[in-house]
Each structure stands twice: as structure tokens, then as C-alpha cells.
Amino acid sequence: MNQTKGHPKGLYLLFVTEMWERFSYYGMRALFMLYMVQALLFDKEMASQVYGSYTGLVYLTPLIGGYIADRYWGNRRSIVVGALTMALGQFLLFLSACYFQEVALAKYLMFCGLGLLILGNGFFKPNISTMVGRLYTPDDNRKDSAFTIFYMGVNVGSTLAPLVCGLVGNTGHPEDFKWGFLAACIGMILGATAFQIFKNKYICDPDGNPVGVAPQRSASTAQQSETSSQKSTSRTLLMLGSTLLLTLLFSINWNADSAHLFADADWIGSLIYATTVVMPVIIITDHSLNRHEKLRIGVIYIIAFFVIFFWAAYEQAGASLTFFADEQTDRHIGGWEMPAAYFQSFNPIMIVTLAPIFAAVWSFLGKRGIEPSSPRKQAIGLGLLALGYLFIAFGVKDIEPGVKVSMVWLTGLYLIHTMGELCLAPIGLSLVYKLSPARFSSLLMGVWYLSTSAANKFAGLLSGYYPEHGVSKSFMGYPIENLFDFFMLFVFMSGSAAVILFLLSGKLKKMMEV
């Protein structure tokens, strides 16, 4: 195998760029729910719906951004355009927070800012990680450690973001939210600037050729592409038509009269769920797939379905658990009260600490032939998620509304959830790479992110059931009268998914080995 000491400098440029992008995203996320409720005076259900739509679309638009980069712009231009678009989006959130007392203007600026963040992320997210592997030759055994270093950039950014943005924005005074959004904006500008200045010098393959430039197509290649495009037109039209039809069906209020069929329709949620259904069907019905390939793709779909329940519960960190940290957690350490946003730094800190331990555990079990299969690891992750919510549910059992509990309960939940994430998230990505036919690898990775998109939208919906004084809430007939009821909802949901996936894991393992 080819090995050279050290890593190319381009890796560290990508590390810095990704670090600042994650700083921007998680800095804004740490404040967003609190801003809507405390400054714009949204109720928790409305704030949760906006949050779910935003985070859901963030994982939907990379399908479009990846397509444009592959066919027209290349990775480099897409990253710069995406980064600057997101910086502008953060700046509009800053302006929104500057005029928060003029609610109509503030809401308009906020939604424009969210739109730019969603669009920019679509160009940025699918392109930067793909460039890491291209810095090395195919047989270079430094790739694994390169992706590990790159992933550290994600965790450094997501650790620093709530600390910095929370310090300046989550002060208890609504007029200070703007400084947190401005810090997120500056972080994104720093990342974009560093990448733009140094990309031509350092983002190169081992032979010195630039990586991620716009694709160059010869006349013959263009003709082949045109022929291929004509063949796929009918399937594209079928996909768009099916998505539109399903979006309309999901948006119908079946209990309303004909004049109000689309009253209060959640068009964004319907689009996300419709795309999540249509895309997998379009892929699995491709006539070029043989039986073995379909079985393996089926495993990806089944795992992706269960992953929706994991992330829907896990992503309460930026939604309902932020309310809990702000309103019902005693955050005093001596004479200092820790900002609620700081809790969102706990997970990345724990990831960095525990990841090497989990890697060692899997290696230890693997050498003895008792390492759990990938589906079983996923089931364990879901089980740990349920255990985390069970832990905090008993922490809040029988407490009166408004009474604050120790930080131990929320910290314990994040610790258990981090362990669950380490069982599920890295294993899932690896599984998609292993099982995908080469010609469908990008599309199936898109399906995997679609499940995350649906999960984030679902997370926003579930967060809306967070108990509020004087408001009666129930989920599918299950009454939610207090925090114990709310947290037990996630115990039942993720626990049931864990049991079912565990029972299916043997069958799934056989399907993977076909």
C-alpha cells in the first residue's frame, strides 16, 4: 500500500472550512428555538414546527446541490457559493434579531435567512467531504485516518459553537440574540475566506492536479451524456409527478369539507415525506438491478426506516431539550448560571472522548468473533436512546411545574445518547457504502440523508408536544400532561423500534451476505 508520512495540507484546509461551517450551523441552532420563543414570542408548538421544517430541508437540498456540482459547477465553486449563501443567511438572522420588537419585519427577515441557510447548505454539505478522499491515491492507507481528522473538525466546530454563540447570545435578554447570530455569520465568512484563498494551492491530488474543479466534457462525452439523459427523462418525470401527487395527498385534511381540504396544510413536511417515499421506490424499481442487489438495497431501506425514529428522538437536543435546559434545569455552578445553550456542547465533547473507546471495544469483540452485526449495533443504539429518556423521565417524575432539577439528569441523558449515536451513526454510513451497487452509491447515500431529513421534520413535530401550562396535548391518543409523559413517549417509540430491529437483525444479516 502507498503510504507517505503526514497528510497533505489540503486536508487541514478542509478541516478548517468544515469546522467553521459546523460552528455556524450549531451556533445558530443553539439559539434558534430560544429566539423564536423568547424574542418573537412564538408558542412552543409553532417554534417546533419551524425548527423541524428548517432542519428537515437542510438534509433535503443536498440532493440538488450534489447534482449541480457533479454536472456543472464542481465541488470548489459549490462550496464557496454555499458558504457565502449561508453567511448571508446568518446575517439576515442577525438583522431579524436587531428588529425583534418589530415582529412582522423580524419574521420576514428570519424566514429569508432560513431559506438562504437551507439553499447554501445544499451546495456545501455534499461536496466538502467528498474532496477528502480525492487528496489521496486509491491505495493510500492514510484515508481512514484522514476522515477521522476531518470528522474532528466537525466536532471542534460543534463544541465551540454553543459556547461562543451561547455566551454572547443566550444571556437572558432578548436583545442579545443578535450577537450569537452575528458570531455564527462571522464563523462562516472565516471558513469561506480560508477556503477561497488557499484552495488553488492545497486542494490537489497526489500528482498536483486540482481537485473539485468544474467537469470538462468532450464532444463524445457530451453526446453520451445527452443520450443517457434522454433515457432517464421518463423516470425523472415519473419521480417528479409522483412526488407532487404524494405531497398533495399528504397535505389533505381528510376530516374537512371539500372547500377546506388543504386548510392548515404543512406543505414542507408533506414534500419531505413524499420525497422520502418516492426516491427509494424509483431506485429499487430500476430494471438494471438484479435480485442480490435489490436485497442489499432493501437492507439499506429497512435500516434507514429505523434510523428515522432514532434521529427524531435524538434531535430533541436542539428543540424540546433546549426548552427543558432553559426552563427546568438548575444551571447554577457556584455563583454562575450556565447558559442553556452550553448543553449542546456536551454531545460533541463526549463523542471525541468516547469514540476511541467504542472503536477499541468493537475491535476487542471482533477479534473474539463476538462483535454484533451492523443491524444489531443499530438496535443497541436505539435501545440506549430509550434508556436515556427513561433516565430523565424518572428524574422529572412527580415534580411540580416550574421546579428546576439537577443538571445531572440532562447530562446523563446526553451521555447515554452519545453512546447510542456511536453505535448507530458511523455504522450506518459504512453500511450504505458496503451494500450500495457502485452505480447507485450517490443516490443511496442521498436516500440515507433523506431519512435524516424526515427524522428532523418528525423531531419538530414531536417537540411541539412539549407540555405547556394550560394547554392540553395528546399524541395519537396518548395524553401528555407533564414532562414524565413527554419523555416516556420517546421511551416507547425508540424502545419499540429497538426491539423490532433486534428481532429482524438476523434476517437482515443474511440479506447482507447474499
TrEMBL record:
CDD domains: MFS_DtpA_like (cd17346). Keywords: Cell membrane, Membrane, Peptide transport, Protein transport, Transmembrane, Transmembrane helix, Transport. One of its GO terms (molecular function) is peptide transmembrane transporter activity. One of its GO terms (cellular component) is plasma membrane. It is a multi-pass membrane protein. One of its GO terms (biological process) is peptide transport. The chain crosses the membrane at residues 23-42, 48-68, 80-99, 105-124, 145-169, 181-198, 237-255, 267-285, 297-314, 346-366, 378-396, 408-433, 445-466, 486-504. This is MFS transporter. It comes from Phocaeicola plebeius. The lineage of its organism: Bacteria, Pseudomonadati, Bacteroidota, Bacteroidia, Bacteroidales.
